[in-house]
Prior knowledge:
This protein is α+β, with helices and mostly antiparallel strands. The chain contains 6 helices and 12 strands.
Amino acid sequence: MSGWPSGYGRRILAEVDSTMAEAARVGPGLAGPTWILGLRQTKGRGRRGRAWRDPEGNFAATLVMRPSEPPEEVALRSFVAALALYDACVQATGRADGFSLKWPNDVLLNGGKLAGILLESAGQGGVISHFAIGVGVNLRSVPETVEDGAVAPVSLMGETGVEIDPEGFLDLLAPAYAKREESFTTYGFAPIREAWLARAARLGEVVTARTSRDETTGTFETVDEAGNLVLSTAKGRVVIAAADVFF
């Protein structure tokens, strides 16, 4: 296929329970990184076990791979995937204005949530056997229900008028990811981090980071070399490894 990145597999499924579940089933036996696209998901899921609503015509895919780095480095591919998503959206619409990246793993369009990323891995003894990057994009429509306080969802077609089907979007995302992945494996996280920060939503503004135990409000200062959110608060700098961010 013209434009498809060398070394990456491609599986298109008419229906699947979840592309992440499929990745877990087939991941251990794959020879190389493979994209799994589900044209219909019956049990899609998002972060923290939440259901991911997947109306027909939207994008639901998972990239499964067998990385060799330590787990903390592997997890930085969340930023690689976010940048690739940004690149694919810009290519699909022919415009960069309106798109931004929300820590830790969302893509926004005109301030609304366009896409989300979910990471899962399996392994033991500090060695990852396979790693999955799940990607959901509202290409055509938005979910009917939204979590309280969450950023309101938007669709690519609704905000830009651009209509693209899931396979067409995968044809943009896969090479975009391969290019960012090559940068990551060649030069490390530093250029990925710099590129991500250049597209970051609410950088320099006050945000609230919530976990299941507490919440921290402060000025979004940066993302550090480990991918952590850094907030400047009245009590000093606070470094946050995992949380949901609210504006």
